[in-house]
Write a structure and sequence with these properties.
Shape of chain A: globular
Radius of gyration of chain A: 19 Å
Oligomer: homodimer
Helix content of chain A: over 70%
Number of helices of chain A: 10
Largest interface: A-B, 42 and 42 residues
CATH class of the largest domain in chain A: Mainly Alpha
Strand content of chain A: under 5%
Amino acid sequence: MTPQQTSRREQNKLDTRRAIAQAALDLARSEGLGAFTAEHIAERANISRRTFFNYFHSAEEALSVSTEAFLDQAEAELAKRPADEPILDAMIQALAATTKVENLQDCGDLFRMAAGNPDLLGTQLLAWERAEARIISAVEERLEGQASSLYIHALVGSLLSCAKAAMREWASSENPDHDAAQTLENHIVTTLTMLRDGFSHPTL
Amino acid sequence: MTPQQTSRREQNKLDTRRAIAQAALDLARSEGLGAFTAEHIAERANISRRTFFNYFHSAEEALSVSTEAFLDQAEAELAKRPADEPILDAMIQALAATTKVENLQDCGDLFRMAAGNPDLLGTQLLAWERAEARIISAVEERLEGQASSLYIHALVGSLLSCAKAAMREWASSENPDHDAAQTLENHIVTTLTMLRDGFSHPTL
DNA sequence: TGAATAACTTGCACGATGTGCAAACTTGCA
DNA sequence: TGCAAGTTTGCACATCGTGCAAGTTATTCA
């Protein structure tokens, strides 16, 4: 009786979820954004339209799975950092580590696609917003009473804005698979260091 | 022949736009978010459903008019600052000045409402995102060649995140009309000063 | 001033969205 | 094996967002 962490049921759901996300990404690449419907995704994933909506609220949400994975990683990495490390150094290390995420390339593609599609962009922004809320809770616990609510919200918001800026810069330049992860990591460290030390002096 | 800057046509359109926005806000307050349709708004504004969609893409967008006004104000104030002022000081002054915007109270209400409604939140985030793009362009012109694209994107993103944090703090506390604008301005100056000098040392 | 023109509003139709509901089907467990 | 709980599916329905063409209002200019 191998104590499977994931029962057959849970595994099936995860598989279906992955299949849907993959189908959505395939369609986005082959047909173009907004050129396909929830029904098309369902068809390609071999499920009914109704089941699609049991998993996701919209086509855009199905596309955002990789982005969510990236953000979950950020949250998890931050939780790993030692409690006595200065908060900004912990953040730099945590965000730098996210570049090792599974499907980094998909994140870049999504980021580029979102730039030209308000619907997708809105969904992605919501994903970042939800992640922000989770990270704020984590930081609040970590700094228990040592910082004001205003400080924490401003800090975490800026943290994610810097990460976003880093991703944009990374995703917008043609990366001839020249160690993409390393490039992104450099951008992240650059922006977060500015955040830590102040934006007064632009480090070109 | 008084040289009217706004022709009758333009004025009518503006009036209609305002009427729709007002109708949407009224309904949101009286019925609750998500408890009314585009058709309801149109009815209350005395126009057809079709005309509503000529002005806005969705009910949420009609609600975001005050937020857009606030962000436009921020952009305009920044453009007013002298060109030789250090960029971060210019930003602090500009954002602080936005608190004099017409319908600040509506902005606060909207902000609170959005916290509990993903659709509205998504629309508001898009509005902030569009404003961010415009401000980035303005800053790029201002710093012409003196700063990297990465620096500018990270800075402006963080700027708006700090402003958002300030608004959240301001909107979430019961303000018994105790000079609301001043309270918000204080929060903005606090967060932007941290952005300028670095987040290393939490100023409680 | 009055006809021609441009801009705006409206109704209609249509494909797509997102969700409640109940009937089928699958899995877990005694 | 067979029942309880969880999942998928089809169907119906209200709503959305937009193209289109016909109607209405503002503007222009002869």
